[in-house]
Amino acid sequence: MRGLVVFFALFVAAPAAADVLIGRSLWMTHCSGCHGELGDPIVPGTPDISRGVGADSSNRDRMKIIRNGSGIMPPYSEYLSDDDMGEILAYMVTLYPQSSPSGLHLADPNL
Ligand code: HEC
């Protein structure tokens, strides 16, 4: 149910809905095994995005972790293009309870 609500909210309101939807599909392939479909972690030690853990990180720092990995999380820079990682991030940030689609900063030159 929550997934549906998120889905429709993105579809209607997000300026970059297409990126978010592509990001969701990549997230399901590469990230959801540990982080869960909606950020509710499956593997112990993974931050609970659905409860807002890490919500105050910057997208720049998140991108660094996606590129380089951290702890048991593998680095993705060799498997995914910058565009793919940007799309994944666009989806990921919608999972924080504090986020809103208009809070996306896809044009951030620091990403
Ligand atoms: C093998 C399990 C695993 C996979 C697969 C995985 N992660 Fe992670 N992720 C983790 C863990 C564990 C941490 C916490 C790392 C730490 O504490 O050093 C983490 C942390 C993060 C963070 C930092 C969160 C914060 O609070 O700042 C981001 C961003 C992230 N992951 C994104 C992703 C993305 C995007 C993918 C897929 C491309 C992915 N992860 C795949 C386990 C995983």
Short synopsis of the structure:
46% of the residues lie in helices and 0% in strands. The chain has helices spanning 2-13, 17-30, 32-35, 59-68, 82-92.
Describe the structure.
The structure is a single chain. With 111 residues, the chain is mainly α. It has a single domain (2-102), classed as Cytochrome Bc1 Complex, Chain D, domain 2 (Orthogonal Bundle). The chain contains 5 helices and no strands. Helix 1 packs antiparallel against helix 2 and helix 2 packs across helix 5. The chain is globular, with a radius of gyration of 13 Å. It binds heme C.
Distance between the termini: 32 Å
**Class per helix and strand makeup:** mainly alpha
Q: CATH first level: which class?
A: Mainly Alpha
CATH architecture heading: Orthogonal Bundle
CATH topology: Cytochrome Bc1 Complex, Chain D, domain 2
**Radius of gyration, taken over Cα atoms and rounded to an integer in Å:** 13 Å
Q: Percent helix among the residues? A: 40-55%
Number of helices: 5
Beta strand count: 0
- Could you tell me the strand content as a percent range? under 5%
